[in-house]
Amino acid sequence: MVSRMADAICFTLNGAPVEIAGLSPMTTLLDWLREHRGLKGTKEGCAEGDCGACTVALERADGRHEAMNACIAMLGQVDGQSIRTVEGLLGKDGAPHPVQRALAEADATQCGFCTPGFVMAAYAFAAGGEPPELETIHDALAGNLCRCTGYRPIIDAMKKVAGLATEPAAPPPARTMSPVFENTFFAPRSLAELVALRARHPEALLLAGGTDLGLLASRARQPPQVVIHVAHVPELNTIDAGKQRVTFGAAVTYAHAMPTLVEAYPPLRTYLARLGSRQIRTLGTIGGNLGNASPIGDMPPVLLALETKVKLASPRGARELPLEQFFLGYRKTALAPDEAIESFSLPRLQPGETFHCDKVSKRRDQDISTVAGAYRIRLKNGRIEDARLAFGGMAATPKRASRAEAALLNDGFEAARTALAQDFQPLDDWRGSAAYRLQVAANLLRRLELRLAEPQRPVEVEAL
Questions:
Q1: Region 192-221: what's the mean pLDDT?
Q2: What is the pTM of this model?
Q3: Which domains are present in the chain?
């Protein structure tokens, strides 16, 4: 049952319970921490989740500690969660935390503006028990920018704190009813509640992780008027790693989905490490990526190549359709006003099938793709028997290259590269001209050709 009264937002902050009432649930966590709580250690640098100066730790009930951007997280999203800021690391006697001490002793503080964000990223890394390997440390720090350019001492400090034991998080407050904040922010606790709310509020924006939607509240300062937050719907948080298909609920975060995705499709390991940062992957969801329908989203080409089906729920029941029928136009989908994405499922690779993916961007880390490509190939007796080629950044929607697929099967890779010009008339913007994008897509098919010709020789995913 959905409460009709505006509830207080309740969460745990630095180990102590907090209740907030009479404040817009669309207020960013960063603004509340600084302006209402006086916790100035959490900084605003970019207001869009790129620089990491606002990093806090989300301490989950299962013991995971995950770095998170406070600038794009709304207060309504942290209801029922446990949050720790840099001030919450100090001991009862005011002594610095071992992570703070490690950065200070390594001379890694420099000008100091970005330092609290690095401290919190290091705290989440240490709590995860990961090894002090350089690749892992770089991944943990990819969401934090240091404009003093002194990353070496920060990396040295990260090596010292790897695997550091941390105290268990304080339990978040329990809820017995689904909250409604200020009659503008609805947080259903079941799929039935979600579809009922969706029918009553077709004007509401569906909020999963908010890594895009949160920009309205942070950077644009024009938060949405009505939101339905789907992150607490159990049916949308399931993962079913079956023998034939892998199914994910629409609210499963990237951080939660990555182990299963990488196990099923190993080339996604490098690809997903470049999808945002750990802070972004803590909140961001693949379902949100699909609902956003951006033509330059990283995951839609992958899901198109893997022949994904998407399940939509409404008061009229559920329906399922191929993902390529879901994208109708620029940021336009097949979702009806009373529907929500419930889940999506992918078939596992079968014997003889291979899968590869590439992302080309102006920066390696923390950048939107200029062109993204994904390819599922079925080989028989050394010949290509079937192919699914999908690209992002090449059209108004993520799209399969159907003419290139046919050309590849009939006449080979050179013909497929030529046929790309029949499949796409790419957008032309500051990330890349139309001609550049066509050339990049052709080059990626050449890379795929080399991969298939020499499968034992790795061809790394790079930012070009």
A1: 91
A2: 0.92
A3: 10-161 (3.10.20.30), 175-348 (3.30.465.10), 352-464 (3.30.390.50)
